């Protein structure tokens, strides 16, 4: 992509694109830097109605802010390139408005329409087959509707999984906000032969951890923290989130000679590679979700979405089935992941 920009586009246009990129990153960074303390405190507001309205307002405001920054930078950039007459036309204003509306509509559709993403992972000397469903980053909150959660459960059950894995950030912050919503009774209807197991994400630590874990238990999700279980000659290792500074080392959790599958909320997989895991499954990044947040994830993690084979370890990172209170996705789509584990001898 970089070669395409450098070799095939006119140099003024290259400068313009770099200008837009750096300017948008700066504008986005300033917004998050200035608003972060407020965003953290907003989750502590007791009034559900006020809290919900504020989250919707901030979400829409951020999207408008990003669009206005982009269009302002575009106008300045066009002026620098000597194309300033374009921004004085009514067409530029109307196109800016259309761009904003279509971007918001598409971003909301990417969030609300949950797709099924399928992967196949082959393991040497594995003589059976196992079908997994991986569900992460639902972010249950007052912004999530019961119908949305029902759709997730219907899609999960429609995949007839042998085992369901939940990858953390199931709760946005405080479980007290979820009482009487019916989310727990709905999620409890997820079915698989071997059960529903999950890990904690960073958001479960935001509120009262013990209460959040009790709520997840009511949802029918058995949370394991630095523990492992064996299913069909595979050892599944469920890591506690990195928020817990005293979480165990991966090698200290191993308890069998079976191939290892690591479930860890955040896609840091160096330890899984060094300890010989055949697969790590993670979430957390939302697939980037929107610009410029995706750039931050790209700098922090080697894989922010999809499948990658590194040496003898496969890595799968899901964009997740929900979002926080930014209820749009311009860089990814909501998803549920189906993973088929099989031996290479089945080819």
Description:
A hairpin with a 2-residue loop joins strand 10 (306-310) and strand 11. The chain has 347 residues and is of the alpha/beta class. A 6-stranded mixed beta sheet has the order 1-12-2-3-4-5. It has helices at residues 2-8, 11-42, 48-80, 90-112, 146-157, 183-187, 209-218, 270-274, 293-300, and strands spanning 115-123, 129-135, 163-166, 196-198, 222-223, 227-231, 234-238, 260-263, 279-282, 306-310, 313-317, 335-343. The radius of gyration is 22 Å and the shape is globular. It has 2 domains: 2-111, no CATH class; 114-346, Metallo-dependent phosphatases (Purple Acid Phosphatase, chain A, domain 2). Residues 1-11 have low confidence and may be disordered. The protein contains 9 helices and 12 strands.
User: Tell me about the biggest sheet?
Assistant: 6 strands, mixed
Class by alpha and beta content: alpha/beta
Average pLDDT for all residues: 83
Work out the helix count: 9
Distance between the termini: 35 Å
Helix content: 25-40%
Shape: globular
The CATH topology of the largest domain turns out to be: Purple Acid Phosphatase, chain A, domain 2
The CATH class of the largest domain, by name, is Alpha Beta
Give the number of DSSP strands.
Answer: 12
Helix and strand string, N-terminal first? Answer: HHHHEEHEHEHEEEEHEHEEE
How much of the sequence is in beta strands?
A: 15-25%
Widest sheet: strand ordering: 1-12-2-3-4-5
């Amino acid at each position: 992509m970089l070669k395409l920009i450098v070799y095939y586009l006119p140099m003024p246009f290259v400068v313009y694109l770099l200008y837009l990129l750096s300017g948008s990153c700066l504008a986005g960074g300033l917004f998050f830097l200035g608003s972060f303390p407020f965003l953290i405190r907003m989750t502590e507001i007791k009034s559900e109605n006020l809290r919900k309205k504020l989250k919707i307002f901030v979400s829409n405001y951020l999207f408008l802010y990003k669009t206005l920054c982009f269009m302002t930078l575009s106008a300045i950039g066009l002026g620098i390139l000597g194309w300033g007459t374009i921004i004085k036309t009514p067409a530029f204003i109307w196109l800016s408005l259309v761009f904003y509306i279509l971007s918001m509509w598409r971003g909301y559709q990417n969030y609300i329409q949950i797709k099924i993403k399928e992967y196949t992972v082959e393991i040497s000397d594995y003589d059976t087959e196992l079908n997994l469903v991986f569900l992460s980053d639902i972010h249950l909150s007052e912004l999530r509707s019961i119908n949305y959660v029902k759709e997730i459960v219907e899609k999960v059950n429609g995949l007839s999984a042998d085992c369901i894995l939940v990858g953390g950030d199931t709760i946005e912050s405080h479980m007290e906000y979820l009482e009487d919503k019916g989310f727990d009774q709905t999620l409890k209807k997820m079915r698989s032969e071997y059960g529903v197991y999950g890990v904690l994400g960073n958001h479960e630590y935001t509120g009262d951890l013990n209460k959040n874990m009790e709520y997840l238990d009511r949802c029918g999700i058995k949370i394991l923290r630095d523990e492992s279980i064996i299913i069909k000659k595979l050892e599944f290792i469920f890591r506690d989130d990195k928020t817990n500074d005293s979480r165990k080392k991966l090698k200290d959790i191993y308890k069998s000679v079976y191939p290892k599958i690591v479930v860890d909320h955040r896609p840091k997989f160096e330890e899984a590679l060094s300890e010989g895991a055949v697969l790590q499954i993670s979430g957390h990044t939302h697939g980037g979700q929107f610009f410029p947040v995706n750039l931050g994830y790209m700098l922090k993690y080697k894989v922010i979405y999809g499948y990658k084979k590194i040496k003898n370890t496969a890595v799968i990172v899901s964009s997740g089935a929900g979002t926080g209170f930014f209820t749009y996705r311009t860089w990814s789509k909501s998803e549920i992941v189906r993973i088929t584990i099989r031996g290479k001898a089945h080819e």
